[in-house]
Amino acid sequence: MAKFMDVHDGFFGVTQEQLDAAHDADLKIEGEEGVHFEKAWLDRESGKVFCLSTAPSKEAVMRIHERAGHPISEVYEVTAEV
Amino acid sequence: MAKFMDVHDGFFGVTQEQLDAAHDADLKIEGEEGVHFEKAWLDRESGKVFCLSTAPSKEAVMRIHERAGHPISEVYEVTAEV
Predict the structure, then answer these.
(1) Does domain B2-78 have CATH number 3.30.70.3090?
(2) CA of B55: how far to CAs of B37, B65, B80, in Å?
(3) Phi and psi of A71, rounded to 5°?
(4) pLDDT higher than 90, residue B73
(5) What's the complex ipTM?
(6) Tell me: the pLDDT tens digits for A25-58?
(7) Span A66-74, mean pLDDT?
(8) Do A52 and B41 touch (CB under 8 A)?
(9) In terms of Cα–Cα distance, which of A27, A71, A6, A50 is closest to B77?
(10) B19 touches chain A (CB under 8 A)
């Protein structure tokens, strides 16, 4: 398993409740691909969301987010952290 | 105090030790601006680093990173998280 940071665009004006609902949609299906979304940080002004996950691959992260209704364009493997 | 996520580019091939040193350079001076860098995640393939901080403003985050030798172009205020 590896760790990933992915980036969403277009979440302008999203509320806490909407962010919770989007995260719950991921959690509901993530197990099917061995993914776990740990944390998500939203900036509703810029519409950015950053998600931290553990997963077997970038493609697994992308598939879960796409199936949950919020596809991503950027996903990065975390190779070191502090 | 608010929470911020900022993004660095150009950290290609950076080691764990180099990431630690960059983070330590921030920690050494962050108090002068009331900033605290909590976490950083590196993808050495893409050269991206994502830093999570608490700070009084975006500008304070930018000033500390610049003075520590690794200026950023992108910084986002976290308005919700899950």
Answers:
(1) yes
(2) 8, 12, 16
(3) -60, 155
(4) no
(5) 0.96
(6) 999 999 999 999 999 999 999 999 999 999 999 9
(7) 95
(8) yes
(9) A50
(10) yes
> b/e map of A47-60 (b: 16 or more CB within 10 Å)?
ebbbbbbbbebbeb
The pLDDT of residue A66 is above 90: yes
Q: Do B41 and A16 touch (CB under 8 A)?
A: no
Asked if A12 reaches chain B (Cβ–Cβ under 8 Å), the answer is: no
CB-based contact B80 A14, cutoff 8 Å: yes
Segment B16-44 shows an average pLDDT of 98
Mean residue pLDDT of chain A comes to: 97
| Residue B72 sits at the chain A interface (C-beta within 8 Å) | no
Q: How far apart are CA B33 and CA A63, in angstroms?
A: 41
Q: Is B23 on the interface with A (CB under 8 A)?
A: yes
